[in-house]
Amino acid sequence: MQRLFTTLATIGRLAAPYFRSEDRWAGRALLASVIVLELSLVAIDVLLNKWNNEFYNALQDRDWDKFVYQLWIFTGLAAASIALAVYKLYLNQWLQIRWRRWMTDRYLHDWLSAANHYRMQLVGDAADNPDQRIAEDIQKFIEFTLSIGIGLLSACVTLASFVVILWGLSAAAPLHLFGVNYNIPGYLVWAALVYAIVGTVFSHLIGWRLADLNFQQQRYEADFRFNLVRVRENSEQIALSAGETAERERLNIRFRRVVENWLAIMSRTKKLTFFTAGYSQVSTIFPYVVVSPAYFSGAVQLGALMQTASAFSSVQTALSFFINAYRQLAEWQSVISRLAGFEAAIAKGRADAVTPPVIEVLARADEPGITVDGLAVRLPAGVPLVTAQKLAVRPGERVLLTGPSGSGKSTLFRALAGVWPFGAGTVHVPIGAKLMTLPQRPYFPVDSLAAAVTYPAESGTFDADMMARALTAVGLGALVPRLGEEAHWNRMLSLGEQQRLAIARAILHAPDYLFLDEATASLDEASEADLYRLLQETLAGTTIVSIGHRSTLVPLHRRQLRLVRDGATFRLEEKPAEAAM
Fold first, then answer.
1. What is the mean pLDDT of residues 159-168?
2. For the chain, which domains are there?
């Protein structure tokens, strides 16, 4: 029961925000409409149950006029039922897409805001494959929630409606066994209840493991799909390394997990289907078996028999809701667990950014540049990495940061950029200052070349002439005619061309502080020097801080910092001016 209440609370936490959102009135109206239509369908079922009595009595009495009259009644009820079913489905789908649009937007915002997606990866969160959570689990959660929720409501209303009918029919058609009538109040209701309870218990005993198996299946499917994408994204490196055999083996290992878990689902589903299919078949004849003694004894007519059987079937179906929906319930529970885990991971990522001790990045009006005070950069597990007691980078400076590989240079950049909260200390930046960091392997969206060079600016921020001048300046003039072409530019361009394109991006954005994390390492020394001179000319007021290993970078900067080993960590210190070239 505690697990049930916890699951219900989780469902409420996941579903309720939409119905309190800015789209709440449309959502509430659609939900209310779907519920009204569902209840109307139940009302038609009640009318059809009464119709059974009149129709079959007309057949037994060979009353042609009554028979024709009942056909017209059936036609009207059937037409109404069809119209209600069509619009119930239509409005249900409309509600699904509005709800999904809102939830997707909310999850994308929470996942991508303030580098939260990056922190979630660093801390090894439980929310594996966020793409699946957003693209697939949200859709399934909404579909199952509406289907199961409205189905349960319909079952409850059907049960309440037909129990009254069936209780009255129990008195009209008393239990008749061995020539003796037994007046058991509502015996047909009790028979349906016992039958459904037995079926529910056995269904749960057989199928309870399906929830966990479905959870694992979604995880294995997403892992397999993710690794297929990784192979596609890194096809050049794999081809150059002749790594096809190794990749095929890794993919086969992941796919074997998919197959093995699927076989376990098949086995469990087979057992459950054996029972539910048998239960369904017996349900067809069971009400007639229960009521037939009263019919053959002459206590009721054929119409009463058919009405009783129909009412009994409706009650039994309503009571058997969990049996018929068990597989769907199991998959729904796995989806709920995945979305709840994703929300928890998002919340943890946010908490990691603000829960002390953290590296704080503060904007101050009285700071002429970037200053660091008592900075201690740590790994997510808390292992110390870099310390910097005092550091000031003044506007317009050209600073080179050096140090051994693995000393934490890139991580220090991330801390200065505000995306690495793990550690302690304070970074002060001027109010309104624009910071830009160019990594060694830049990112370009799968979009037009114009969108790639201006990323992350909105479309139209820079005109075509500005983009053409920037591309020509960095040596990519041949790409100017392709500004409107859409492509996967990280695959279309060499790494050196990608780095040139990133420099063009920096020229367009003209940040106040530009951090270059080996952003020109794939270029030859002469080309690298040309790009640095271009930056000095076009971004004269921009502060440039570079990470690099080449000695040729030293004369391109006026100041040099380095990371030196200090026990188990590295310490940031100023390199003496006489040591610089």
1. 80
2. 2-354 (1.20.1560.10), 360-579 (3.40.50.300)
